[in-house]
Amino acid sequence: MSYTGDVTRGGSADVRELDELTISKVSVGPHDNNAYLLRCNGTGEQLLVDAANDAPTLLALAGDPGLATVVTTHRHGDHWQALSEVVAATGATAIAHPADAGELPVKAETVEEGQTVRVGQVELEVIHLVGHTPGSIALLYRDPHGHPHLFTGDSLFPGGVGNTWGDPQAFASLLRDVETKIFDRLPDDTWFYPGHGKDSTLGRERPSLPEWRARGW
Fold first, then answer.
1. Residues 6 or more apart from 179 whose CB is under 8 A from it?
2. Facing residues of 139 across strands?
3. What pLDDT sits at residue 31?
4. Is the pLDDT of residue 117 over 90?
5. Spatial distance between the Cα atoms of 55 and 87, rounded to a whole number of angstroms
6. Is-contact 74 33, C-beta < 8 A?
7. Which pLDDT score, from 0 to 100, does residue 18 have?
């Protein structure tokens, strides 16, 4: 069955097999957070995007190969409830942006705009998106055999940017970063994977950018 990105809490993972990378998506915790396991097909090394909740499920998803790295997309607690347990069980290196890393329950190595995070032979570009939190990041995989894949945390969803709680400066910052660093740089067939809910593509969302700007959220 082909990948759809539709997952339910407590349900099985949805798995996408690319030439060099395998992406497994699960939903965990009371806020239905998405967590993504990325496996380099060449080396078997694995990286987890957001140890959000339910450590047993995440550790079972990683299986015997374990984890080399856990990237936390931003500081909000629903995205790191399982981080301490997962890191302790696997010895994985925790990674986050320096503006948010201090809020995490474990010591994290830090990455900034334009740097890369590796999972085996695969490189993921760090994109810093300010607004949902000061240190929110997205991870971009430019598949040499297909379209780009983008893990956006809570900064970009189908239907809009992430919550900025009525702060017009935070909203303006986030929308500007999403437009200039994502929509202006990446093609319509870029598939993005948010921190909650269903996936989408930039092409599907691009026509709505003026509406998002006008409504202010």
1. 209
2. 126, 151
3. 97
4. yes
5. 10
6. no
7. 98
- The per-residue b/e assignment along 30-46, b for 16 or more CB within 10 angstroms, e otherwise, is ebbbbbbbbbbeeeebb
Q: Write out the two tokens for 204.
A: 């599907």
| Count, residues in the chain | 217
Q: For residue 214, with 0-12 CB atoms within 10 Å meaning exposed, 13-18 middle and 19 or more buried, which class applies?
A: exposed
Angle in degrees, CA 48, 154, 192, rounded to 5:
70
What gap in Å lies between CA 23 and CA 57, rounded to an integer?
16
pTM of the model: 0.98
Q: At which residue do the structure tokens 């929509």 appear?
A: 183
User: Tokens in use for 18?
Assistant: 């690319």
The pair of structure tokens assigned to 146 is 């297909």
Q: What is the dihedral of CA 7, 8, 9, 12, to 10 degrees?
A: -60
Instruction: Measure the CA–CA gap between 34 and 61, rounded to whole angstroms.
Output: 13
| Residue range 40-67, pLDDT digits in tens | 999 999 999 999 999 999 999 999 999 9
- Supply 210's token pair: 């003026």
